[in-house]
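SEQUENCE-TO-STRUCTURE ENTRY
===========================

Subject: a protein chain together with a token-level encoding of how that chain folds.

Sequence line: the amino acid chain in single-letter code, read from start to end.

Question of interest: how does this chain fold, as expressed in backbone structure tokens?
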Amino acid sequence: MKVLVASAWPYIQTVPHLGNLIGSILSADVFARYARLKYGRENVVFVSGSDEHGTPIEIEAIKRKVHPKTLTDLAHEYDSELFIKTWNISFDNYTRTESEVHKAFVRDFFLGLTKYITVEEEDLPYCENDKLFLPDRFIHGTCPYCGYEDARGDQCDKCGRLLSPSLLINPRCAICGSKPVIRKTKHWFFDLRPFSDPIKKWITLSQDMPENVKGTALSWINEGLKPRSLTRDNSWGIPAPFPGAEGKTIYVWFEALLGYISATVEYFLRRGEPERWKEFWEEGKVRSYYFIGKDNIPFHAVILPAMLLASGKGYSLPSVIGATEYLMYEGQKFSKSRRIGIWIDEAPKIMDVDYWRFILIRMRPEERDMNFTWSEAVKIVNTELNDDIGNLVNRVVTMLNRYFEGKVPEPANLSELDRGLVDKLNETVDKTSNLFERAKLRGATEEILNLAREANAYLNKKAPWDKVKTDRTDASNTLFVSFNVVRSIAIMLYPFIPVKAQEIYDQINQGDLNDERWDRAKELIYGVVVGKPRPIFKKLPSDFEKGVNEILDSVRKEVEKERPTLLK
């Protein structure tokens, strides 16, 4: 079986914050690493890219008085280096919507959908001051559904409803703030109505789709699907390929969704295997996982399936859409202007990236909005990573060196207590895998931590430091079982904290985790000679939480000097 892993393409007009990271790219990376262990590296492709087109980038470029491509060239280079080199995100292909492969694919794809495309004239807001139509984020106003006063022309951030500029109450230009007038313009529309029943059937019958995705998609469908505008009057984007559509561009959400396919195409073109991309999109032969924020659910659970069905090419529909709720920062929304939150070029200067990776997954907002707090972050590092896992590794490696010359002993007649922990190990590997398959990443970490805690309790009960003097066989069985728990935990931790997991594997002399397979976590081995004990994790200082604001101020001053001027 082939596995496609897709992360939502981040808007590239600025540096992402930690909430952006956990909502898509980090979650996707954790899953991709698991999938490679489970299904084999050659059977997994992980793609994403910089979303460079559309109104958010165009507005930002106007404000900064530069061409949009000047901004996105710089942002793509800066952010992709952060993702890949700093955060250790294991993309097979991190590309961009300015890629020639992507632009050509999008044009060809939409030319194949003419059966479902109509041309209509509509009345749209126009700013007489800035001399442009106001689609999407070029216009703000009051949401007609929830009353939020700063809703955008494409979506309300508060209630999540998809909008159109004509629905906004008291609309205003996002650039100059003036009230727009209404003018007629011609646009191309993609008709979603023919796909209402097949999408409803697909989403309803899915056994693995999260409930928040099902609920949002079905609500949208039950309200009645209708044609949605496929083109915009923007100058920045992919030129619409339809006859008579000169001066129009493709709406960013329609083209960005197709980036998952074009990025796969591009990846295999670079490998000199131009037809292999189809293996990862063929219906019935692939499992596909999409990691997104909850505000993107309608696009991935309705519009993307509709486009795939409309193409008639037999594309596989999403198997799981892992949509997170929002991560808050100490009870508040992340805000660049108010300096609330932490950005991905700041966090690594505060603590180890693997600590951050684990903290963010432990706080991953899978069912509801979650609140990042420094007190919880300290607890995760000091108690869960250091005490539960690091202490277990250190105890086992130390005792193997002290009592068995570093060699993992061969077992003999395991006791009921020994067999109980082996059963727990096997159960944890299976439970963790099942949680991964449903994109329940936080739950997977809980299973691993429970195994580590049980192993520590087992060591305390068996007391091999005493038994080695009176019953060496029992002591050797204890350390045999404990070693294999450590080995299993290292394999299961690899998707979350790849560098630290490899440090554990190095210490127990087990080779390269990149070459490991998931199911080998259930194998029991002996005869290995382990290395010398070294601390894997280090506790944060006891006063860390009290001094964190001072640390943040210092880090921000440092980052301010390093971050490109256009991205400040």
The radius of gyration is 26 Å. Residues 217 and 302 are 6 Å apart (CA to CA). The chain is about 45% helix and 15% strand. Residues 114-196+207-232 form a domain with the Methionyl-trna Synthetase; domain 2 fold (CATH 2.170.220.10).
